[in-house]
Here is the input.
Amino acid sequence: MAALHRFGSVCGRGVKSVLLSKSALIRPLLSTNRTQQPPFLLGSQIRMSPVHNASSSASFHWTLERSLSLALLGMIPAAYVYPGAVMDYSLAAALTLHGHWGLSQVVIDYVHGDAKVKAAKAALFVLSATTFAGLCYFNYHDVGICRAVAMLWSL
Amino acid sequence: MALLLRSLTRGRHIVSAHHPTCILYRHAVPMGTSAKDEMQKFWDKNTQLKRPLSPHITIYGWSVPMMMSISHRGTGIALSSGISLFALSALFLPGDFSSHLDLIRSLSLGPVLLSAAKFTLAFPFTYHSYNGMRHLMWDAGKGFGIPDVYRSGYTVLAMSFLTAAVLAVL
Here is the structure.
C-alpha cells in the first residue's frame, strides 16, 4: 500500500519529483492511529469476500478450461502406463468436456444472432452428450478406449 | 486495485484517523454496458444496415503464427469430430470393435499405406497437443515476444512431425 501512495505522487507531479522529494512527505498509508488496532488503509477497508458477477464466472470458466487441458495432457502418458477402466472413463469425460468447451468457443466466434446461437448451442450440447454416452457405452460393452488404441495401432 | 489508482491520480485527500470514511471510491463509475452487449449492438447495427464485410483473410498477408493458430482450431475440430464419429458408430453401427478391425485387415493394405494412415491420424493429435502446450505457456504469461512466438512455433511444428512419424512406424 505504501507503493500505491508513492505511485499517486508520481502521477501528480512526474517521476523526478518522487526521487527529489523529501522522504518525510511520503509516508506509508498504513496505520496513522496509535491504538493497537490492525493497520487500515487510510479511508477504507479492503474487503476480501469473493466477487460474484458475470465477468468473474467467465474468468473462472477460463481457469477451468486451462486446468482441464493440463489434466488431459497428463492423461496421455498416464493412459500408456496405466491402461484400464478408470483411465477409459476419465479419458471419455475429459475428452468430451475439452471438445465441448473448445467447440463452444468456435460457436461464440462464428455464430451470430440470438436464434442461430441458441440452435448451435443446443445442437452442440446434444452432440457432446451423445459422444460421452457413446464413449461410455464403448468402455462398458466393448474393449475400452486404451485397449482400442492399442489394437488399432497393432494393425 | 484499479479503482484505488484512479482515485489517487485525481488528487490526494488527507483524511484524519478520526474519520475513516470510504473516500477512495468517490471517483469510481460503474460500467454502463458489458462487452457482450457492445458486441451484440455492433452485429445488430451492421446486419440491419446490410453492410458488406470488409475483405480480411483474402487480402491480409499470412504469417506462420496466424496459420498455426487456425490450424490449432482446425485440428481441434477434426479431432473432436473423429471422437464423436467413433462414439456414434459405437452406439449405432452393428458389430463390435474387433469386427471393424477385421474389416480393415481384410483390405490387405500394404505396410506403407498403413503407416501413412497412422501418420494421418497421429499428426493432428500431436500438433494439437504440442501447440496446446504452447498456448498454456502463453496463458502463464510466457513467450509473447515475436521472436519467441516464431521460435516456439517452429519447435511445435518440428516436434509434431517427428512424434507423428515415430508413432506411425510403431
The CA atoms of residues 81 and 127 of chain A lie 30 Å apart. The longest helix of chain A spans residues 54-81. Chain A is about 70% helix and 0% strand. Residues 2-45 of chain A form one domain.
